[in-house]
Amino acid sequence: MEKYDVKVRYIFEGTYTVVAEDREEAESMVAEDCGLVLGGNIHTTRDDDEVTDWKFSCHPDLQVLSVRQRGGKSPMSVFGDRIEELRKDIIEAIRQLLHDHAMNAIRFPEEDYDPVWVIWFSDNGDPYECRVTGLRVTDSSLTVIAEDKESGDEVECYSPFELGAKNIDWLHEMYEAVWRQLEETTEDDLTPQTEES
Fold first, then answer.
1. Which residue, among 90, 118, 111, has the nearest Cα to 178 in the 3D structure?
2. Most buried among 33, 123, 170, 197, using CB within 10 Å?
3. In terms of Cα–Cα distance, which of 102, 85, 110 is closest to 160?
4. Number of structural domains, the chain?
5. Cis omega (within 30 of 0) on the bond before 127?
6. Helix, strand or coil for residue 175?
7. Residue 8 near residue 65, CB atoms below 8 Å
8. What is the model's pTM?
9. Is 197 contained in some domain?
10. Taking the CB of residue 51, how many other CB atoms lie within 10 A of it?
11. Residue at 196 is within a domain
């Protein structure tokens, strides 16, 4: 029998309902005074009138980060599952932003001073630099609408297979672009946009 160090991360989400003056106070209350204690119980040091409720899954998901034999060589880190989770989280955040504004699609203005750029590959495998002009979401997919830098042709990249719709850096930039357009624009300037799939 050998000894192994198994590095894990317990992943679960939940919601605390707190009474606070503003968003920052609510965040600091939870960050400083609420958490998980030994034995897996949810705990808070705040009074019942400050933290009124919480809802968490009974059993957190387990994510194995590495397995290493004691005294053995360093393990190869496995990032694939964590990258895929992050990709799904970013796409879900984009979907949620659009749904919060009764939208399933968005177009970015042509005069955008800081556009998102992606690489799109033709059927022949030739790469083209493209500016993202819009996004469309469904319950199970994200479509990136882009314009080829040279020809001006409109192309589409489909998640989860095409690089233009799966690179996590580009997805993060797309999330920020959606957030800026929706959250920094007044409600009067927004018109809900939906497209047929």
1. 90
2. 170
3. 85
4. 2
5. no
6. helix
7. yes
8. 0.61
9. no
10. 19
11. no
**How far, in Å, CA of 188 to CA of 186, rounded?**
5
Give me 170's structure tokens.
Answer: 């580009």
Sequential pLDDT tens for the chain (197 residues): 566 666 666 666 677 777 888 877 887 877 777 766 555 566 677 788 877 776 665 555 555 665 555 666 666 677 887 888 899 999 999 999 999 999 999 999 988 778 999 999 888 889 999 999 999 999 888 999 999 999 999 999 987 778 888 899 999 999 999 999 998 875 555 555 555 54
Which residue type sits at 12?
A: F
22 & 104 share domain: no
User: Cβ(118)–Cβ(156) under 8 Å?
Assistant: no
Q: Are 119 and 162 in contact (CB under 8 A)?
A: no
Helix locations, the chain, DSSP H = 23-33, 80-100, 168-183
Indicate if 39 and 99 belong to the same structural domain.
no
User: Does residue 93 sit within a domain?
Assistant: yes
The answer to whether the beta carbons of residues 63 and 55 sit under 8 Å apart is no
Tokens representing 53? Answer: 């409720």
Domain boundary among the residues 23, 58, 77 is at 77
